[in-house]
Amino acid sequence: MKLLNVNNVSVRFGGVDAVRNVSFSVEGEQLLGFIGPNGAGKTTMMRVIMGLVRPQQGSVEFQGKDITQWSIHRRVQLGLALAQQIVKPLNTLTLIDNVALAAGTSNMRSALKAFLSIDRKKAHTKARELLEFVGIGSVADAFPGEVPLGFIKRMEVARALALEPSLLLLDEPLAGLNQTEAHELANLIASLVTANRSVLLIEHNIGEVSRICPQIYVQVNGERSMLDTADRVMASAALRNAYLGENQT
Amino acid sequence: MSYEIAVLTSMSIAILFALSLNLITGFCGQVSLGHAAFYGIGAYVAAMLTKAGLALPLALVPAAIVAGVVGALVGMASLRVRHDFLAITTMGVGFLFVGIVRKQDALGGEIGISGIPSVAFGRPGLLVLAVICMVLFILLSVYIQRSWMGFAFESISDDEDTARTFGIDVSKFKLLAFVIGTAGAGIAGGLYAHHIRFIGPDSFGFVESVTVLAMVIVGGIGSIAGVAVAAALLSTMPLWLQFVDDYKLLIYGALIFVTMRFAPTGIAGLVRMLWLKRQVR
Q1: Do A113 and B146 touch (CB under 8 A)?
Q2: ipTM
């Protein structure tokens, strides 16, 4: 069974088709790269999967359930997590509290449970482990405004991991990072795939995507272009045309 | 002595009222400009019940329930909108309350309800009851702030879209804050009615909503201690200085402006800053 199935999804903003009749799927234990030039509708697609945008047509199935009309929090509870392109840390909380909040999300499943739950130690321990794992354990007690963007991006990954997702959606996690930072974070992302976790990675950094992703899905002008192995995608004329124009070689 | 008792009773009721708004605006980040409506609902419910023979401590329970239920209904309709839209919507609820009460003969219409009975043991009895209610609400606020419910409120207050991506049912928690806060305002209203022993629609108008918002802002949005101190000061200021009572809306409006412009974290933030400076030295 596929972990995620996107079936014939279309999204229109006003008179503009952002996504047109797109279908693709993500399997278990898979790191799938998702690329396309600016305006390809990558982020829109990610937002459809997460429930931030509702499609006008088509459906999204996750773990065998049709979640097209589900609210965001229900999708998260089922096992989806999103690390956003523009990271929005909770600025009044330290990095460790930002991650602990996600780590303790099960305490907030019901109002009564949230009211009766006081202990934050377990969530803090898990949050510290995750911050260590993503390499920023030393600044766990700093506030988001006190650390550079690269650290915030890593915190966002830790925050998404804290939700223990079976599918982690990463929206341009390498954007804004220098080459070394991007390379290190890409290595970290490659290590996130486990038997219980797949990763869908949207990225503009094609070099890093082709390096770490065995398979790549390409979307152009809101439509599916191809889904194949990284080698075949990188060698394809379709990819060159998408990024450089029809008559370029 | 009776003057001091009256002042302390006013103070306790104001602290309870301000903390009830602090739970909505401070903890959960939902601005309400119509909080006095729920204060009024509690006042009318408690006054009518005690006039019918019920003891005030018992009448405060339905006062809280009715205010909380109306708060839930208003919340369900208005919490879908955010920020300034929510402020305008809740302001409309405040006007709606005054408008409806004015036209209801059963609620005393324009004239209001007078002859509200005094509580057992007179003024000292009311003071004890007000202090108990205030302390219980302070304890509830402290507990909520430390619980995961408080953590959820804090994240919603900071950025509700991000809170959603943590799997938090934002609408549910916002509604919950609204229900607890409006129920608290209902209790404060019930106590107020028996303190003044006369209530009319104008006792719960826009001025009262601005007054309680000023207490929360001046004290430091979200700070229990700061809001309690600001509520104690601002509620007694009109008793010390007559002109404050005459120009209430002007003075409280100016206080909100000055605090937001020069010290947005309020009294609590200023105290914290001074404390940190002292630590550094």
Answers
A1: no
A2: 0.81
